[in-house]
């Protein structure tokens, strides 16, 4: 019998492949992305990570499964460390000020996505784990595909570090732990619940596509 994670993967791969073709992602890889668009992405991603950590923390505080709780605390701590030690310094390198960081507002598509994930977490911890995993897993998948596709141009791209971060052994290992914890939490679910989780995962993949498209359109005002 297939694991839940295998079924989620099958449902999401077509959407992830579309994301790997996204104009914004391709421009990052070949180095042609406008710096202002990247700044806008980094600010929105900062907002996203802040709320993402909040959802992890909420799930940690509301689960009765010790193994799941241990994982969620670790995931929240590692994501917070990434935000503070990697994301913020990279924003500072781009000239993004503390004032911009403190006053940035979430783009509507991003806010809708984050609200959906929080709503799913409130419905059930396993729903929240599924929703949040999609983001983490999709970044690893997309970064790997695009790195292979643009390997000659990527090394000279000013955005190469983004791809290195999401193809690193540490990041891939963290994703494997996440996948394992989801399969652990889903071991006794019904076929109907399994289908619901597949729908959640697929919907989050569609939200992810919308997130990338924010930056192809007009660069949002960060303040």
Strand-helix topology:
Blueprint: H1 4-20, H2 23-30, H3 35-61, H4 66-93, H5 98-103, H6 108-123, H7 125-149, H8 151-154, H9 160-166, H10 169-185, H11 191-213
Describe the model:
- Homotetramer.
- GO terms for molecular function: thiaminase activity.
- It holds the Pfam family TENA_THI-4.
- The protein has 223 residues and is an all-alpha fold.
- The chain has a single domain (4-213), classed as Heme oxygenase-like (Heme Oxygenase, Chain A), CATH 1.20.910.10.
- The chain has eleven helices and no strands.
- The radius of gyration is 17 Å and the shape is globular.
- The N and C termini lie far apart (50 Å).
- The model has no long low-confidence stretch (mean pLDDT 92).
What is shown here, in short?
This protein is an all-alpha fold and 223 residues long.
């Amino acid at each position: 019998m297939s694991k839940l994670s295998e079924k989620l993967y099958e449902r999401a791969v077509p959407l992830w492949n579309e994301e790997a073709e996204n104009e914004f992602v391709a421009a990052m890889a070949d180095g042609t992305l406008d710096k202002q668009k990247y700044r806008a992405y980094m600010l929105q991603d900062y907002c996203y990570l802040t709320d993402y950590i909040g959802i992890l923390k909420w799930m940690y505080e509301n689960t009765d499964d010790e193994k799941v709780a241990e994982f969620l605390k670790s995931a929240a701590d590692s994501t917070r460390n990434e935000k503070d030690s990697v994301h913020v310094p990279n924003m500072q390198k781009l000239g993004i000020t503390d004032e911009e960081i403190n006053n940035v507002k979430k783009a509507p598509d991003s806010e809708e996505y984050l609200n959906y994930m929080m709503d799913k977490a409130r419905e059930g911890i396993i729903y929240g784990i599924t929703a949040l995993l999609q983001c983490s897993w999709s970044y690893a998948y997309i970064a790997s595909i695009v790195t292979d596709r643009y390997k000659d141009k990527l090394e000279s791209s000013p955005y190469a570090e983004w791809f290195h971060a999401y193809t690193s052994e540490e990041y891939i290992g963290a994703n494997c732990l996440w996948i394992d914890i989801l399969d652990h939490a889903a071991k006794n679910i019904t076929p109907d619940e399994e289908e619901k989780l597949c729908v959640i995962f697929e919907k989050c993949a569609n939200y992810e596509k919308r997130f990338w498209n924010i930056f192809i359109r007009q660069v949002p005002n960060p303040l």
